Structure formats: C-alpha cells, structure tokens
C-alpha cells in the first residue's frame, strides 16, 4: 500500500484567472517541477493520480444547486457579480466550472482514499479553496474543495473530523459550512480580520447552538513572525485536537503567512510552515491512526515560497522531510530563471530561531500572547480546559 496519494495533472493548471491575477497557476507548475526534481513524485511510497471534474451531485454537498448553475452560466458568458462571479477577485474565465470542479474532485478523492484505508495520507496542493460559500465565490475561490472533503468524510461515516487552516486569511467558507455541526472542529490560525480580508475570524466566534467550541479562531497581529506563530499554534492546536480526538485531520497549508507574501502582513518563514505541517502530521498518527488529508491554499510569492513550502509538505507526507540545507536542484533553478527572469533560492531555507512554548508562561506585554489568551479564554472552558494552564 502506498503511504500517500497526491492528486496532480496538468489540467489543474487550468484554474487560471488570467495574467496579473495573484492566483497564478505557475505556483503549482513550479511546485510540481521542484517535487519531481527532488525525486518525490517517483517515490515508491507515493501514488500520483489525475481526476476528472467533480459531478454536480458532489458539488451540491456543499453548494446550492442554484449557485452551481450560476457558475456554469458565468462560464458561458453570463457573469453574476452578486454571487462573486465576475469580480476583481474572481473574474470569469473560459472553462471555469470544470477547472474549479476538478479541484473539488481532487480533495474528495484523497479524502476517500484516506478514509477507506487505501493510503495513510492524501495531498491536493491545488486545493484549499476555503473562502467559497454555499451560494457565492469569494477570495479567488469558486468552489470549496476543503469543505467538500470534510463533508465526504462525514457522509462516509466519520463522526469527528478536525479541520486546521494555516492560511494567513481566515478560513471563513469552511467555518460557515460547519458552524452548527459538532462533528467538525474547525481551527483557523490567521492574521487578525480587522487588518486583512475577509474581515472575519474573531476569537469570540465559537460555533452555533449545540456546537459551541467547535469553531476556533486564532487571530494574530500583523507582523507576527515565525517564533510567535509557532508559539500560537502550540498553545491552541494540540490541546484541542487531543480533547476532540478526531478520526481524520484535514489541514489547509496556505503559504501566504510567509514574510515575502504580497497579500498578508505576517512574517512567518519556510521552516515554521514546515514545522507546522510536521505537528499536524504527528497529531494524525497520535490521534487518528495516521489519517491525514493535506491541501494547498493561498500563497502568492510564486517563486520564493510556494514551491518550497508545498514540496516540503509532500516530503513530510512521505515521512522523508527535506533538509533545510539541501541545495535546490540546478535544473529547477534554471527553469525558474528562464520562465520568470527571477533568481530562485539556492536552499530550502534557514532554521527558525528557538521559540517559547506556551508552558513557559504567559507574557501580558506580548501582542501574540494576548491574541492566544483571547482564543483560549473563549474556547478552552467549553472543552473543560484551563485557558491559563498548559
């Protein structure tokens, strides 16, 4: 049995809002080229599969039928700005329905494979479109493949699914989908919504009636760096997941918390993003018999960040993490130079400085610690946990 399953085919590059849009398909192309040059795609522990677009029946598990029809109509030349279709963030492009539906199919495919026991870990770095709502596109997201993957797991019999979102932007679409469902724990670690799109994700938002505590929002101040970001994750995620005891962990690995990303104000490094993936991977083995579905998401530093973060994610799922000091393949660096005119990094990154774990004590003068405590005070008591103690 392969250890991991990765959804990939060139057709996934067709999710393309056009020249100049931040969601460039080049970030996927460069990721897969790097993963291939690193020998990851030919690993005997990985199966790489292509998928067709998801059917309307699958899309309608998380979207209204009228919205799916509106996407098809927009694809045919009839935009619907009131549904987010044909806006600056989500311009209409030819083949949009099939391209977006293929992302959904990929995330549902790996969720099925993980739940059925065909693989331990499933990957769809083209997915993670967490802003789409039941009836509207939003934030570069037409259909919500992350929500569809979680819903497929529930429909297949899972009673407890943890969704952890590491994107710099709040995972509002997934949260809204499962707001009233105590079977799903949604955790979003993001830049404070008062300073960044979509403007949501308050620590006071904890879920609907009967599902209080199933929604967790960790809203971090702008300019939070690697050390603070990892401290925040450590202070919230492991304790809640251990209390919830998920049968599957679904995680979204948007790379836009990185310091070089043009669309956020966080200052997280590549090593911290790698460490976060390792935390979730380890928790999947500790709590969920290794069942882990890892998705992509945001990330708009197309050359310097996204390929390095997502290649590292694939390597982590293969239990073969990359060495930060490993030189990046010359052939890949040459392709970057020819395709973009930019100079690619020579190495994966540098090690994150030592960071204080939450158990070391709360610092009221620290902006990150205050944000963490706000989340813990709102959520931890709902789980019988002490917000002040580790």
UniProtKB/TrEMBL annotation:
<dbReference type="InterPro" id="IPR037138">
    <property type="entry name" value="His_deacetylse_dom_sf"/>
</dbReference>
<dbReference type="GO" id="GO:0040029">
    <property type="term" value="P:epigenetic regulation of gene expression"/>
</dbReference>
<dbReference type="InterPro" id="IPR023801">
    <property type="entry name" value="His_deacetylse_dom"/>
</dbReference>
<dbReference type="Pfam" id="PF00850">
    <property type="entry name" value="Hist_deacetyl"/>
</dbReference>
<comment type="similarity">
    <text>Belongs to the histone deacetylase family.</text>
</comment>
<protein>
    <recommendedName>
        <fullName>Acetoin utilization protein AcuC</fullName>
    </recommendedName>
</protein>
<dbReference type="InterPro" id="IPR000286">
    <property type="entry name" value="HDACs"/>
</dbReference>
<dbReference type="GO" id="GO:0045150">
    <property type="term" value="P:acetoin catabolic process"/>
</dbReference>
<dbReference type="GO" id="GO:0004407">
    <property type="term" value="F:histone deacetylase activity"/>
</dbReference>
<dbReference type="InterPro" id="IPR003085">
    <property type="entry name" value="AcuC"/>
</dbReference>
<comment type="pathway">
    <text>Ketone degradation; acetoin degradation.</text>
</comment>
<keyword id="KW-0006">Acetoin catabolism</keyword>
<feature type="domain" description="Histone deacetylase">
    <location>
        <begin position="21"/>
        <end position="315"/>
    </location>
</feature>
<dbReference type="InterPro" id="IPR023696">
    <property type="entry name" value="Ureohydrolase_dom_sf"/>
</dbReference>
């Amino acid at each position: 049995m392969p250890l991991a399953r990765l959804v990939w085919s060139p057709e996934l590059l067709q999710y393309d809002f056009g020249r100049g849009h931040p969601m460039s398909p080049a970030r996927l192309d460069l990721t897969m080229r790097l993963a291939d040059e690193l020998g990851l795609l030919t690993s005997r522990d990985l199966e790489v599969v292509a998928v067709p677009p998801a059917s309307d029946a699958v899309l309608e598990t998380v979207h209204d039928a009228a919205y799916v029809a509106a996407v098809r109509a927009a694809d045919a030349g009839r935009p619907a700005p009131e549904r987010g279709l044909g806006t600056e963030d989500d311009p209409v492009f030819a083949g949009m329905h099939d391209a977006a539906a293929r992302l959904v199919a990929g995330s549902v495919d790996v969720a099925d494979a993980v739940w059925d026991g065909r693989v331990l870990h499933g990957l769809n770095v083209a997915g993670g479109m967490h802003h789409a709502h039941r009836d509207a596109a939003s934030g570069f997201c037409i259909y919500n493949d992350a929500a569809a993957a979680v819903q497929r797991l529930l429909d297949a019999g899972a009673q407890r699914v943890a969704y952890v979102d590491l994107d710099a932007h709040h995972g509002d679409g997934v949260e809204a989908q499962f707001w009233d469902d105590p079977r799903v724990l949604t955790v979003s670690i993001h830049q404070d919504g008062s300073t960044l799109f979509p403007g949501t994700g308050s620590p006071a938002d904890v879920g609907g009636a009967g599902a209080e505590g199933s929604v967790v929002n960790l809203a971090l101040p702008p300019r939070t760096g690697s050390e603070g970001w990892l401290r925040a994750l450590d202070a919230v995620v492991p304790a809640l997941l251990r209390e919830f005891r998920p049968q599957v962990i679904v995680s979204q690995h948007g790379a836009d918390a990185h310091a070089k990303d043009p669309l956020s104000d966080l200052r997280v490094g590549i090593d911290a993003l790698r460490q976060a993936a390792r935390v979730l991977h380890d928790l999947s083995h500790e709590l969920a018999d290794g069942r882990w579905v890892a998705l992509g998401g945001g990330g708009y530093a197309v050359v310097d960040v996204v390929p390095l973060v997502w290649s590292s994610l694939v390597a982590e799922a293969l239990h073969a993490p990359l060495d930060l000091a490993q030189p990046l393949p010359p052939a890949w660096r040459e392709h970057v130079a020819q395709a973009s005119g930019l100079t690619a990094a020579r190495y994966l990154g540098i090690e994150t400085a030592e960071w204080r774990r939450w158990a070391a004590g709360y610092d009221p003068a620290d902006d990150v610690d205050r944000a963490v405590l706000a989340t813990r005070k709102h959520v931890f008591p709902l789980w019988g946990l002490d917000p002040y103690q580790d």
